[in-house]
Each structure stands twice: as C-alpha cells, then as structure tokens.
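Q: My labmate handed me this sequence with no annotations at all. I'd like to see what the chain might look like in three dimensions before we decide whether it's worth expressing. Could you predict it?
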Amino acid sequence: MNAPFELNPLLLLLIVLWTLPWKAVALWRAVKRNELKWFIVLLIFNTLAILEIVYIFYFSRRPPKNAKAKRHPPLLLNHPEKESNKEKIIDALREWKKINPETVGRLLNVSDSVAALYLEELAHEKKIKSARKNADHPVYHLN
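A: Here is what I predict for the chain of 143 residues:
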C-alpha cells in the first residue's frame, strides 16, 4: 500500500540528479558575488531548481549593486619582508622602467597572484601606475 506522498525511488534519484548541479552552480555564484542573502535563500529553499536557474541566468548576470564603487585592492598581510619587497619592486622599476606580476613573482620568489597583490597595493598607494588596462597582462611603471 502506497502512502499518498511516497515517492518512487527512481523519481527521487532523478529529482536529486536534476537539482544538485543547478544548486551547486547557483550557490557557487552567490558566494563568488558575495551575495549572502541569495546564498541563504538558495541553500534553504528547494524549488526543483527553478529558483536556481532564474538566479544563474538572470540575477547573477546583473552587475553587483556596488559595481560602480571604487574597488580597493586587497591589502597584503603585514609581515617583516613586506616593505623591503615593495622597495625591491620600486628599485627594479627604476632600472627596468616597466614590470609585470610574473617578473615580480620571480624577483621576490612568490606566486604571481601574490606579486599582483604587491603591484596593486603599490598602485593604490600611488607609487606606481598601470601602463596597460588589459587585466590579463598588466604592466606597471613608476608615477
């Protein structure tokens, strides 16, 4: 005898296989866009992926509310070599005139992403300036 709300196990499996990828992508985008309210709503409510699909294809494609606000680079944590590393970058720029994150990474023996943080922080402090607007291959020079 079947209960009125008992689901066929195969149907339940299909629902899970349909919903899970949509929910994962929607939650990932909400986290990436720093949208806590959307994350909570998407995590709690199960709408057979309808809400997730609407979020993915509509809401997550809109610019964030603070998109026009000036973006400040994430500052590097304070450590004993931070200021000396920034001076090494400035000295290298005096000699080479231009520098990119890959070169800074080799110069300081750090990853390219940490090197990019150093360059962004120096640019934020107005000690250097970006010479090229291409985000894939930024080049910096002294002000």
